[in-house]
Fold this sequence. Notes:
This protein has helices at about 5-15, 15-30, 75-85, 90-100, 110-125; strands at about 65-70, 105-110, 125-130.
Amino acid sequence: MSEKINNIIDQLKSLTLLEAAELVKQIEEVFDVDASSVSNANMVMMPNNGDSTVQDEVEEKTEFDVILEEVPSTQKIPILKAVRSITALGLKEAKDLVDNVPKLVKEGISKDDADKIKKDLEEAGAKVSIK
């Protein structure tokens, strides 16, 4: 290392905890970074100067899971029929699914398909969620 860097390191070692906290605050203000959000030591934080070319990293979910949450005992047969038509399961497998809720009915399907399946199961009397 260069002499300049060695001097900086020596000075940092001599700082009190209060002085170190103040130094971090000053660095955050001067370089427009947030030290608390750094989770990877190799990651470099670049300031966002309102540049509109920066894309949001929020990805729109495209695959959904339909989960059978609740089956009222009075509606078990219509729900069982709906589950069989949706999943193409045999009678025993569909009965096991309906009897052991909450259970995954379909996974990795489109939003439209998930909404249609939810509607069909709710019309049969089931309580359904989409995740």
